[in-house]
Each structure stands twice: as C-alpha cells, then as structure tokens.
Specification:
The chain is about 40% helix and about 20% strand. By secondary structure, the chain is α/β, with parallel strands linked by helices. Helix 4 crosses helix 8, helix 6 packs across helix 10 and helix 11 crosses helix 12. The N terminus is likely disordered. The protein binds 5'-O-[(L-methionyl)-sulphamoyl]adenosine.
Length: about 650
C-alpha cells in the first residue's frame, strides 16, 4: 500500500449520491454496479482504491416526498436511505464509504466550505427570478426546456422570485473554460466535454446557493444567516470532499477523483462543482466520467415515469453476476442503451452459458474422463498451444487499457473473444481423439492444461464484473480461494498440476427463452362470443327509451335487487333491477338511464318489473348502468 500521504497510485471513485425520494431502480443500480466493477478492477491492479456512494437527503424534492408519505423528513430519509443501503448490500456492492448528507460531519464541512467562500467575498445577497425545476432541483434556462417542460420530466418549471445568497460563479467561467480546454480528459467521453464547453461559451450567471428557511426548512442552515438553508446541490456536491475530510483521507485520495454520473447531471458536476472547488481553494477532480441512460420504451428509466424496474427482482431471477455482466456488456460508456429483459436472458445463454460455462463444463468432464479429474502438466507447446497462450496473456494489458479508456463493454468482449478461441482450440485439438492414443498422452496433457489456464485467466479478468462466479469457476478447477491480482492473469502456470478439480453445478444455467417470451407476452384476450345474427326488423321489435329515476328502495325480499320508480314521458313505471351490489339509491336517483320499454312485465320475488335497465358488465362482474352523454327528455326513444 502506498504511503498515505502520497496520492499517486490511489484511485477514488464516486457514484452520485441518490435522492431518497424513491426506492433504487435500474438506473441507480447501473452507476453503482459500474463503480463497483471499476474499483474492483483497480484493486485487482493493485491501486490504493476507495469507493464512495451515498444518499442526497435535503432539498425540496425530498421534503415533498416526505410530506406525501405523511412523515417528517428525517423519519422519511432514514427509511429510504436504508433501502438504498440494503439494496447495495444484498447486491454485494463493495463500497468503502456510504455518505448521507444529513450526517452531522457532512453538514459541518458544508458550513466550513460556505464560510470560506463567503469570507473570500464570492457570496453575495440578491434577488432573483427564474424558472425552477423541482425534479432536477435547479433553475433552468428557457433553452433547456423540452416542449415547455423540465428536461427528463413531464412537469413544467415554476416561476420563482426570491431573495437569496448567490455564489459568484460567472467570475470563474474563463478559468473553467481554459482548464477544460487544457485537459482533454477532464470530462469524458468527449461529447460531454463539448456539452460543458458549449455551456461556457455564454454567461453561466451566478448560482443561487440558498433558500429562505420559511419556505424550505429542510436543509443545512447557512453559517452566517440562520434564516436561509443551503441550496441542495451546493450541499450535495460537497459530499465527495466532506467524506474524505471526515475520515481523514483527503490527502490520500484527493485529487485522484473519478466521478461517475449519467448525463442528466452534467451541468452541476461540470460547471457548479469545479467553480465551487476553485472558490474554496480545493484542487479540481481528476475526471468526470459521464454515461448515457438506460431506456425503457425509448424513455429514460425513472421512478416518476413509472417504467422503473426493481434491480433486485432481476438479479434474483438471473443472479447478481449475470445481471452485472449484462449491464456492463450491453452499454457503451457515454451512449444510451435499451433495457429489455430478454436481452439479459440472451446474454446469459450466449456468452455465459454457451461460451464460458460450457467451456468449464466440457473441460471438467474431459479431465474427469482422461486424467482422473486432476490438472495435468504441460507437454511441449506447439504453435496452436502458443497462440492460445499468447491470446490470453495479452489480455491483462488490453483489458487494463480498456478500463482506462472507459470501454468496459470492449474489455469484456476482449475476454470473451479469447474464450471463444479456447472453445475453438478444443474443437480443433480434439482431446477425445488424443485420449484414444497412449502415444499422445503428453499432447493431451498440454491441451487440457492450456484450457484450464485459459479458464483461470478469464476468471481473473472477469472477476471485477462477476466476483462470485469467477471464484466459483476457480473453485471448480480446484484452485485455492486466494484474492486474485492482475499478475495472476499474466502467467500460464497458475493452476498447479496435480490439483484435484471439483466439478459442481453448471456455472450459468441456461434461460428458457421460449418460456420467458411466453411469460412476458400479454395474455391474449379471449375472443368475444357472439349471439345469432338478427335482422333490422328483429331489432326494430325492441323499444328502448330514456327513463328518469325518481325513487329507489331495496327489494323487501331479495338481497341483490333494487326497486326503482322511473318516469318515462307521461308514464311512471316500476322496474326491478339486480344492481344493488353496485349502486346505492342515492347514486341512481336523478339519473337518466336507458330501459327496454316493451319487455313483457314479470314478477320478481313478488314485485312486478315493467321494463329492464341496460347495463354493461365486465368479466369480473363489475357493472355500469348505461346513461346518456347529454341531457334528453325522459321518454325519448333510443335506437
Ligand atoms: N442527488 C442527485 C445527485 C447528486 S450528486 C452530488 C441526483 N440523484 S438521482 O437520484 O436523481 O440520481 C441520478 C443518477 O442516477 C444519474 O446521474 C445516474 O447515475 C443514475 N440514473 C438514474 N436514471 C438512470 C438511467 N435511466 N440510466 C442510467 N443512469 C441513471 O441526481
């Protein structure tokens, strides 16, 4: 481990701290899993690594959610932050720190930073009017609106006129622009760097950093004016710094900071945060890494859009590791990706069950049959064996480069290309044929040992993505459960000969795609059952009329019947109807309903019914009486 005071070789990665206005969904899970994968990779590589996640608990949005849940904000945030934490814990997310913005230690650092910026003269009091989006918790410009609504939501902004404290953000615009221009890797991929540079081409204005306590009481009080609380973004962004300060780790991990976010919060991270750091005299972060959205039905997945899928449901169904594999493999960093459950199943079957799982399964089977289940020694390597070895031993550096370039999908694909080569190698070398000829025993040993090494190397490189399955794979090969390092993927002799293998359950059970498709398909509505056709003359025999309900009472002898007195033009009639379970007398009195007026009168439990009310009934027995969509005089004929 490097000297704690030496920031070189250290790697500090953060997720956004999530709003606690809703339970975690796939979008939150993606960034968190991504940072988990990235930090596991850096640990594998030997970097001094720290992973921070947490929850953003102040602000209007959270206060509103607490009010809607009918509890005070603190009770509410305690509950939802617990949901985030337990979701990450049950998904095996290996975070080092979990910050809550309601932690007293965080509040103190926020107040210290504010005071420092205030003392330096970069905060002033003024009046402001602008368009505010509660969903995004920030003022937006007219240009940012999409069809008059806030970005990523269907809500219009609110016009706000308020006296607040302001941070002189505009003052730092030239500095920020130059800094981003001089550091091509600061914000990446490039499209988001360009997005921020475009914002900086025009005035960015000063940032309103407080809210009057009288209107928004839920927040951190300004140290010099208790009547104002800190604007939620000013409070939230500081989490990345405050956590390290609280833990005494800032010299060790700052500024080796890698923020991971989605494109929704580029402006706060690409504009507010760097200028805040500059004003507070804190060095700038190393990288802002921005990914795209997971889309469902072409829209961003989110709680408010109602299309959010609970991450826990899916990982339960497919397993943690397969779910992580899918998320990392199917999104190109920076671009949007479509989320379809069938996509997970296809990945499981093709890459995991077919290519990787099957290679392990076949290899263990052959070892069982040909070497007594024991890992054999290499014989002399021929060109094919060397080609396979070289393909695998080149992976550690290739994957490492991919990680540095944020090409996580390509990193995985590099490993899977090699795994497919190993499958082809088995098919080409035909160990089953070699096994028949005792003279080929050394060659058979080379082939089987080569595949064992290939599987082992693949397991090391895939371990950050699939920690459990990678260890399980090595356990089935009989290898000791020691923590892997990247150097383990740089050697071709990591599985000692003579090791007894321990074949187990298939690593990745195949998903039955047909059953999945059937389960996901909408159940087909049963066809309507039609009665015999009638002619217009048959129909003309029926007389429908508008009836005005005057009086309703329960049938004296039947539970389900009501006795209605209706006026049909000049006539007053009694109608007995089986709608008592669906309507109270009050709901019916005064209504104009449609009746069959020439139905032969019948006695129902002793009361004569002089007609029948029309009503619609669904398959579950729900009932609605047919009424007219505009006023008609009673007695009018319905045709
Ligand atoms: N609280 C702020 C962040 C403060 S950080 C100092 C916030 N919270 S949030 O709960 O809305 O989380 C937004 C983040 O969740 C995104 O930046 C991204 O990391 C993740 N995602 C939410 N929906 C997502 C998708 N549909 N797709 C990918 N990631 C998504 O903003």
């Amino acid at each position: 481990m490097p000297d704690p005071s030496d920031a070189r070789g250290s790697y500090y990665a953060t997720t956004p701290i999530f709003y606690v206005n809703a339970a975690p969904h796939i979008g939150h899970a993606y960034t968190t899993i991504l940072v988990d994968v990235v930090t596991r990779f850096h640990r594998l590589r030997g970097d001094d690594t720290y992973f921070l996640t947490g929850t953003d608990e102040h602000g209007e949005k959270v206060a509103k959610a607490a009010a809607a849940a009918g509890v005070d904000p603190q009770t509410y945030v305690d509950r939802v932050t617990g949901q985030f934490r337990s979701t990450w814990d049950s998904m095996g997310i290996a975070y080092d720190g979990f910050i809550r913005t309601t932690d007293p230690a965080h509040k103190k650092v926020v107040q210290d930073v504010l005071q420092r910026v205030y003392d330096s003269g970069d905060i002033f009091y003024g009046e402001y009017s602008g368009l505010y989006c509660v969903g995004a918790e920030r003022f937006v410009t007219e240009k940012e609106l999409v069809d008059g609504c806030c970005p990523d939501s269907d809500d219009p902004p609110e016009l706000r006129v308020e006296a607040n404290y302001f941070f002189r953000m505009e003052k730092y615009r030239p500095w920020l622009r130059e800094t981003i221009e001089a550091n091509p890797d600061l914000i990446r991929p490039e499209r988001y760097r360009n997005e921020v540079l475009a914002m900086l081409r025009e005035p960015i204005g000063d940032l309103s950093i407080s809210r009057p306590r009288a209107r928004v009481p839920w927040g951190i009080p300004l140290p010099w004016d208790e009547e104002h609380v800190t604007y939620v973004w000013f409070d939230a962004l500081i989490n990345y710094w405050s956590h390290l300060v609280t833990e005494g780790l800032e010299r060790r991990y700052w500024p080796a900071v890698n923020h991971f976010i989605a494109k929704d919060i580029v402006k706060p991270h690409g504009v507010f945060w760097p200028t805040m750091l500059k004003a507070a005299g804190i060095p700038l972060y190393a990288h802002l890494n921005v990914h795209g959205y997971w889309l469902a039905d072409e829209r961003k997945m989110s709680k408010s859009l109602g299309n959010a899928i609970k991450p826990l449901d899916l990982q339960e169904k497919y397993g943690h590791d397969a779910f992580r594999y899918f998320l990392l493999r199917d999104m190109s960093f920076g671009l949007d990706a479509s989320f379809h459950e069938a996509g997970i199943a296809e990945r499981v079957n093709s890459d995991l069950a077919n290519d990787l799982g099957n290679l392990l399964h076949r290899t263990l089977g052959m070892l069982g049959r040909y070497t007594g289940g024991v890992i054999p020694a290499f014989g002399e390597l021929g060109p094919d064996d060397e080609a396979l070895r070289d393909a695998f031993l080149g992976l550690a550096d290739a994957v490492s480069r991919r990680f540095d370039e944020l090409q996580f999908d390509r990193a995985i694909e590099d490993v899977m290309v090699a795994v497919r080569k190993a499958n082809k190698y088995v098919a080409d070398q035909q160990p089953w044929a070699l096994a028949k000829d005792p003279a080929q025993a050394a060659k058979l040993g080379t082939v089987l040992r080569s595949v064992v090494e290939a599987l082992r190397v693949a397991s090391v490189l895939l371990e950050p993505v699939m920690p459990t399955k990678a260890r399980e794979l090595r356990a089935q090969l009989g290898l000791a459960d020691a923590p892997a390092t990247l150097d383990d993927a740089r050697r071709w002799d990591g599985a000692p000969e003579g090791t007894a293998t321990r074949p187990g359950e298939p690593l990745f059970p195949r998903v039955d795609l047909e059953a999945l498709a059937a389960a996901m398909a909408e159940p087909a509505a049963p066809p309507l059952e039609h009665k015999d056709e009638v002619t217009i003359d048959d129909f003309a025999k029926l007389e429908f009329r508008v009836a005005h309900v005057q009086h309703v009472e329960p049938h004296p002898k039947a539970d389900k019947l009501l006795v209605l007195t209706v006026r049909v033009g000049p006539e007053t009639r009694t109608i007995v109807s089986g709608i008592k379970q669906h309507y109270t007398p009050e709901q019916l009195i005064g209504k104009r309903v449609v009746i069959v007026a020439n139905l032969k009168p019948v006695k129902l439990r002793g009361v004569e019914s002089q007609g029948m009310i029309l009503a619609a009934e669904d398959a579950d027995g729900n009932l609605a009486v047919a009424t007219l969509d505009r006023d008609m005089p009673d007695g009018a004929e319905v045709r």
